[in-house]
Amino acid sequence: xxxxxxxxxxxxxxxxxxxxxxxxxxxxxxxxxxxxxxxxxxxxxxxxxxxxxxxxxxxxxxxxxxxxxxxxxxxxxxxxxxxxxxxxxxxxxxxxxxxxxxxxxxxxxxxxxxxxxxxxxxxxxxxxxxxxxxxxxxxxxxxxxxxxxxxxxxxxxxxxxxxxxxxxxxxxxxxxxxxxxxxxxxxxxxxxxxxxxxxxxxxxxxxxxxxxxxxxxxxxxxxxxxxxxxxxxxxxxxxxxxxxxxxxxxxxxxxxxxxxxxxxxxxxxxxxxxxxxxxxxxxxxxxxxxx
Length: 291
Hints:
5-stranded parallel sheet; 11 strands; 4-stranded antiparallel sheet; Alpha-Beta Plaits; alpha/beta; Rossmann fold; 11 helices; about 290 residues; about 45% helix; flat
């Protein structure tokens, strides 16, 4: 469930900078010093982001991006190219379709981290699978809903979101790593309850962004209420362990303001919302769409 970043860079100093920038349990950084080794690795590895130096293997770095594009098509990893010198800018026109972003050397670690996060956000929005939770994404969800409608199946759509104010306070106090753990716990809870209730017919997707994540479950029409109750109860019990002992005892998170005043915010919970679709309502919706 870690985000894989592949670095094709012959300069060990820059490779170390990238490795240190993404040195956390959330990322898995793989460094290859030549284009040949990178191609070999890509035959067995599917990175979430590809970082390439334009002068890799005597100026053939951008060829690697082309190879990835040709092999993986639209499902390729977003690519960032490190530009070495000004004259190469004239050669960028032929690579705009296979490179998502260009960064000049020397690379600013803060700028690099921001660029990678922006590309990951975009990738998560359109990817069939979310790289953080490994759940299907919004495209796969839309396809599954259309499939069930075409088969005239009755089903319920159950949406789950982390409570807004509590999760904002949680991120501010505990940081991104523990917030990521909270997201993964929410994903496991929704998926586990949906499978327990709906078996192989259950479907769960991860939609939205890292700022406003949403977990959507498709289950048999009459089971939506039971699913929402089970998910919210189980998540509340599991998420409580991600809070500090004092927070668990008090039942709230305490935040100190800029001027020293303190505010109390409830612990993080999951909020649910449901809607149902039957063959009759699907026909009605289709009829209105044709009018």
